Amino acid sequence: MAPTEPSLAGTVEAAASTGPREPQKTPTAPVARKSAASSGRKLSTKAMVTINVASVIAGIAAWALVSGLGLVGLPGPGEVALRAGELFADGTLAEDTGASLTRVLSGFVIGSALAIPVGFLMGWYSIGRAILEPYVQFFRTVPPLALLPLVMVTMGIGEAPKIFVIFLAAFLSCVISTYQGVVSVDKTLINAARVLGANSFVIFARVVVPASSPFILVGMRIGLGAGWATVVAAELLAAPNGLGMRMQQAQQFYDMPTIFVNVIAIGILGLIMDRLLLMVEARLTRWQERR
Amino acid sequence: MTTTTQNAMIRFENLRKEFTLTGTTFTALDGVNLDIADGEFVTVVGPSGCGKSTMLNAAAGLLEPTSGQVLVDDRPVNGPSPRTGVIFQQYALFPWLTVRKNVEFGLELKKVPAKERRAIVDHYLELVGLTRFADALPKELSGGMKQRCAIARAYAVNPEILLMDEPFGALDALTRVHMQEQLLETWTKERRTVMFVTHDVDESVFLASRVIVMAARPGRIHKEITIDLPYPRTESMRLSDEFAKLRAQVWEAVYHQPDAKGADE
């Protein structure tokens, strides 16, 4: 999923293009074909999905078997499904999901919204980089959750500290990626725009922004994943509701089915969010050469 | 060694360019004097590192000379200008824009009204034979088509000068020959001043009315060879004795380079 390096585009893109081409004109660049050959025979989409579904069913069956034999004292799929039905019926699941999603999306939106301009500043102006880079590099190595005790002392135990750590998680992954995107914009594209009469503003808005969009979107996806991981953990510490908090509570009552329901809900929601952003990404970066 | 014409479209005056790379200073160009007349087609050929692209970039206003200057139409170049179109080896198409939008880019910046823009774009897409691919993205095009799109984009803003930096370098031999013929065809129609950088001796002879052979370390003009073959140039001309003779002359000059000067290594 990594964005293609613009610098290679000139040499390899001819071979990688699959669109219309003139019959006698076949540029030779062997690079593009190699990776496909080494990964073996490719399955059709239908076969892939069938195997996906079969694999999940087999996993659930194995789970049922393990729990049925009483090997590790786990609840079985049936028990968990029953509990899920109860939690769904009394509205707890919806409330928790809503609370967790609200936190994660608030943090994610604020984080990305701030990361993009900051990333551009860092990539475009060396003075911006000089000022911001130490902070970004420092906070990048500190897990956002590790700041939670500090944040809770200063911001209290309401929504603010939780949204703040999620914001930080989303911001840091997105800012690095945006910065990378800006610095790796192909210099030739900038020159091409300059010789067509573009000034700095036009170059920024019409070359740098679109050229770095694949990087930004990758950063946003990573940011959303990081935010989701952070919210659950943040809720484990102190929250009136949320999927993480519900698990924490269930743990005290040794309520294994509830823990399972929430783990599964977290996984499914994370997957849905990631897929949604992936779809947006695929749509916005359709112009990219895929190799 | 250089001819001085009365009204040069591009004039290189004592051009010198130094680059500093990891503490070492390289002289990419030294004492380059050259006049290119209005409507002339000049090719610049030489081994890699002879500064031929540096020369072109200086003319394009994409880099600043260490000393000396480049004059376009008697005015010193101090930045890129839409009067000077540049075609790069790596096509440099905006991959997120369709063929039409790429060609339109410079016109939008010139604030040409939409209707007029459309007509101009249609005209140049027709000229380079990409009308059917107007709505395709660059990734859907072959190398030759991409370069034709880049040529249309450069033509669209109606530059007086075309600077071409090994534009056909990434293309296969056959596509290259077709592109050369097409380029000459459009040039005969529009007679823009062309400075064409290449490392291909055949290409330099086939296209130009004058070939400038460069030498490396430091980059400088080594020889000028006038190609007195008439235009339009045809396929059969490539196989003629005169062509072979001129090619041998250029080859000789490229191959037998003068010794490197000074402590520059």
Task: Explain what this protein looks like in three dimensions.
The complex is a heterodimer of chains A (about 290) and B (about 260). Chain A contains twelve helices and no strands. Chain A has a domain at about 90-290: MetI-like (MetI-like fold), CATH 1.10.3720.10. Chain A has helices at about 5-15, 30-40, 45-70, 75-90, 90-125, 125-140, 150-155, 160-185, 185-195, 200-235, 245-250, 255-285. In chain A, helix 4 (about 75-90) crosses helix 12 (about 255-285), helix 5 (about 90-125) packs antiparallel against helix 6 and helix 8 runs antiparallel to helix 10. Chain A has about 290 residues and is an all-alpha fold. Chain A starts with 5 loop residues before the first helix and ends in a 7-residue tail after the last helix. Chain B has about 260 residues and is α/β, with parallel strands linked by helices. Chain B has two domains: about 1-85 and about 160-265, 3-Layer(aba) Sandwich (Rossmann fold), CATH 3.40.50.300; about 90-160, no CATH class. Chain B is built from eight helices and ten strands. A six-stranded mixed β-sheet of chain B has the order 6-7-8-3-9-10, sandwiched between helices. A four-stranded antiparallel β-sheet of chain B has the order 2-1-4-5, with helices on one face. In chain B, a hairpin with a 4-residue loop joins strand 9 (about 210-215) and strand 10. In chain B, helix 2 (about 100-110) packs parallel to helix 4 and helix 6 (about 200-205) crosses helix 8. The radius of gyration of chain B is 19 Å and the shape is globular. The two termini of chain B are about 25 Å apart. Residues about 1-5 of chain B have low confidence and may be disordered. The interface of A and B includes residues 19, 25, 210, 288 and 289 of A.
